[in-house]
TrEMBL record, chain A:
<dbReference type="InterPro" id="IPR036485">
    <property type="entry name" value="Glu_synth_asu_C_sf"/>
</dbReference>
<protein>
    <submittedName>
        <fullName>Protein glxC</fullName>
    </submittedName>
</protein>
<dbReference type="InterPro" id="IPR012061">
    <property type="entry name" value="Glu_synth_lsu_3"/>
</dbReference>
TrEMBL record, chain B:
<protein>
    <submittedName>
        <fullName>Glutamine amidotransferase family protein</fullName>
    </submittedName>
</protein>
<dbReference type="InterPro" id="IPR029055">
    <property type="entry name" value="Ntn_hydrolases_N"/>
</dbReference>
<dbReference type="Pfam" id="PF13522">
    <property type="entry name" value="GATase_6"/>
</dbReference>
<keyword id="KW-0808">Transferase</keyword>
<dbReference type="InterPro" id="IPR017932">
    <property type="entry name" value="GATase_2_dom"/>
</dbReference>
<keyword id="KW-0315">Glutamine amidotransferase</keyword>
<feature type="domain" description="Glutamine amidotransferase type-2">
    <location>
        <begin position="2"/>
        <end position="297"/>
    </location>
</feature>
C-alpha cells in the first residue's frame, strides 16, 4: 500500500511511477496525500490499480484513464476523467466543468454536483452524477449514458448524437435537436444496470427518471436551410 | 488566461495577515498570468482621502510631493512603496490635487482614490511585484489581486489590474468584453473618465456608474449581466463589500471557499490551499450568471 505525499515529492514522479506499473504489479492500492488542487494527478494510467487521492484535485485528474480505479476524496477541477477509455473514477465531492469530456469508456461517478458541460462530446463513457449538472451538459454527446439524479441546467444535450441521457429532476431547457423520449423496457434495464454499477441499487429506482435523446434532425443537411449560410 | 484572487475577512483577528495571505494566493497564480500583477488592499483610513500615485521612479514622486506641499501650503502624509506613493489629503482638496498633478506632473498616474483602498500594480512576475510593494506586510479587511496574461491590449502597467473608476471601488477581470467600445462612449456621456482603451476599465466604470445612480453592488452586477457582453469572471471590491460574478457561459474558472473567518476566491483551488482552516472550508464553484456578494457591517 504505497503512500505518495505530493508535498514531499513532485507530481511528475508520482505519475511516472504510476505509468511504470506493470499489469501484474503487486502494488495495486495507492494513496496520494497533499493533492492541494494540483493538475493532472493520476492522469494517463494504464494498469488495474486503485489510486485514492486524499483531498481536492485540480484539472484533468485521471484523464485518459485505462483500467485503473481513481477515487477523489474531495472536489475535482475542470475535466476530471476527460478522455477516459476504461476503468472507474469516483469523485466524492463536486466536479467542475467538462467532467468526463470526450471519454470513450469506463464509469465516472460524482457524488456531488457537476458544473457546466458535463459529458461534453462523450463517446461511450457512463457518467452518474448524484447531484445536478450545469448548462450545456452532454453537448454533442455521441455515445454512452449520462445519469443525473438531480437537475440539469440549460441546453441539455445540444446537438446530441446517440448518447442516452437520464434525468430524475428538472431540466432547465433542452438544447437543439434534443427531445424527451419514451422510457421503454430496454431503457429501464439499461438505467437499472448503470445505477447498480454506481452502487445505487435499491436506493434509486429507474422508474423515477425521464429519458432524453437525439431527434436526429441535424444528421443530414436540409436544403431548405441553404439560405441561412 | 489571467489569474484572480480575493480575500474578504470576517474575523478581525486575521486582518494583520491579510497581505501575507493574499501574497501567497497571488504568487500561486503566476502561471496563469506572468506578465504583470496588481492588487487592491482595503486597509486603515484617516480622516481624508488616500490617493495612490504611480510614476516611473521614486525621485519623480518625491519631487512632486514636495512641490504639492508647497502648493497646498501644508504637509502631506506620504507612504512610498517602490514606484507608488500613497498620499493623504483632505477630502475637499482631492479635485485640486488631481488637477495640479495633471497640469504639473502628467507623467504621474493616479491609480486609485479612496478612504481605505490602495492599489499597486506593475509589469513583472507576481512574486516580484508583491515583494517590491511589500504586500506581505500589509494589513486590511479585504483585498483583491490579479495576475495578467495579456490578450486584448499591451503589457503595460496601465493595462494591469485592478482597475478603479470610483472611490474605494475596484475590479479585476478574467476574460474579455466585446462591447466595451460602445459602452465606453455611453459612460463617457454620463461623465465617467477612462485612462485606457482597456475593456476591463469599462466594466469597472459601468459598475461605478450604476452605484452612483443608487444601485447596491449586487444590483449593479445584476444590471451588468444585461449590459456587459463577453467572457468574464469579475471580483469586485468596495469600501465595505466584496462580490463575484461570472458570465452565463462561465468559461473562465472560479473557485470559492467560505469559513466563519473569511470568504476567499481563486481562479483555481491551488490559490486557496495556504489559507487557514481550508481543509474544513466549504469549497464551491460559483454558479454562472449569479451574483455573490458580501458586506461588512
Amino acid at each position: 500500500m504505497p503512500v505518495f505525499d505530493l508535498n514531499q515529492a513532485p507530481l511528475r514522479e508520482l505519475n511516472r511511477t504510476l505509468h511504470g506499473l506493470r499489469p501484474d504489479t503487486n502494488e495495486t492500492h495507492w494513496t496520494v496525500t497533499g493533492p492541494d488542487g494540483r493538475h493532472a494527478i493520476a492522469a494517463g494510467l494504464d494498469a488495474p490499480v486503485s489510486v485514492e487521492i486524499e483531498g481536492h484535485v485540480g484539472y484533468y485528474c485521471a484523464g485518459m484513464n485505462k483500467q485503473a480505479q481513481v477515487i477523489v476524496h474531495g472536489n475535482a477541477g475542470v475535466g476530471v476523467a476527460e478522455n477516459m477509455m476504461s476503468g472507474f473514477v469516483h469523485v466524492q465531492g463536486d466536479a467542475s466543468q467538462a467532467a468526463g469530456a470526450t471519454a470513450h469508456g469506463g464509469l465516472l461517478v460524482i457524488d456531488g454536483n457537476a458544473g457546466a458541460r458535463c459529458g461534453i462530446s462523450m463517446k461511450g463513457i457512463d457518467i452518474v452524477v448524484k447531484g445536478s449538472v450545469g448548462h450545456m451538459s452532454a453537448f454533442m454527446a455521441q455515445a454512452g449514458t449520462l445519469v443525473v439524479l438531480g437537475d440539469a441546467g440549460e441546453a441539455l444535450g445540444d446537438s446530441l448524437y446517440e448518447a442516452r441521457l437520464y434525468v430524475r429532476g428538472t431540466v432547465r431547457s433542452l438544447g437543439a435537436d434534443c427531445i424527451e423520449k419514451e422510457m421503454r423496457p430496454e431503457h429501464l434495464a439499461e438505467l437499472t444496470e448503470k445505477l447498480a454499477a454506481a452502487g445505487l441499487s435499491g436506493e434509486v429506482g429507474a422508474g423515477e427518471f425521464r429519458r432524453y435523446g437525439s431527434a436526429r434532425t441535424l444528421y443530414h443537411f436540409n436544403v431548405d436551410n441553404a439560405g441561412a449560410y | 488566461m489571467c489569474g484572480i484572487v480575493g480575500l474578504f475577512l470576517k474575523n478581525p483577528k486575521l486582518e494583520p495577515q491579510l497581505g501575507s495571505l493574499l501574497s501567497g494566493m497571488l504568487v500561486t497564480m503566476t502561471d496563469r498570468g506572468p506578465d504583470s500583477a496588481g492588487f487592491a488592499i482595503y486597509g486603515s483610513g484617516n480622516a481624508g482621502v488616500k490617493l495612490t500615485l504611480r510614476a516611473t521612479g521614486r525621485a519623480v514622486l518625491s519631487e512632486a510631493v514636495a512641490a504639492l506641499e508647497g502648493e497646498l501650503g501644508r504637509g502631506v502624509e506620504v507612504v512610498e512603496r517602490d514606484t507608488h506613493a500613497v498620499i493623504g489629503v483632505p477630502e475637499e482638496a482631492e479635485t485640486r490635487v488631481r488637477a495640479w498633478l495633471a497640469a504639473n506632473h502628467p507623467e504621474i498616474d493616479v491609480v486609485s482614490v479612496g478612504r481605505v483602498m490602495e492599489i499597486y500594480k506593475e509589469v513583472g512576475l507576481p512574486g516580484e511585484v508583491a515583494e517590491r510593494f511589500d504586500l506581505a506586510g500589509m494589513h486590511g479587511t479585504h483585498g483583491i489581486g490579479h495576475t495578467r496574461m495579456a490578450t486584448e491590449s499591451a503589457v503595460t502597467t496601465n493595462g494591469a489590474h485592478p482597475f478603479s473608476t470610483g472611490a474605494d471601488e475596484c475590479l479585476v477581470h478574467n476574460g474579455s468584453l466585446s462591447n466595451h467600445n460602445g459602452l465606453r462612449r455611453v459612460l463617457q456621456r454620463e461623465g465617467l473618465r477612462f485612462a485606457t482603451q482597456n475593456d476591463t476599465e469599462v466594466a469597472a466604470g459601468y459598475l461605478s456608474w450604476r452605484m452612483r445612480e443608487g444601485d447596491s453592488l449586487k444590483q449593479a452586477l445584476e444590471a451588468g449581466l444585461r449590459d456587459l457582453d463577453g467572457f468574464f469572471t469579475f471580483v469586485v471590491g468596495t469600501r465595505t463589500g466584496f462580490a463575484v460574478l461570472r458570465d452565463p457561459i462561465a468559461c473562465k474558472p472560479a473557485v470559492m471557499a467560505e469559513t466563519d473567518d473569511y470568504v476567499a476566491f481563486g481562479s483555481e483551488y491551488r490559490a486557496l490551499v495556504g489559507l487557514p482552516g481550508i481543509a474544513a472550508a466549504r469549497v464551491f464553484e460559483p454558479e454562472p450568471a449569479t451574483v455573490y456578494a458580501w458586506e461588512r457591517h
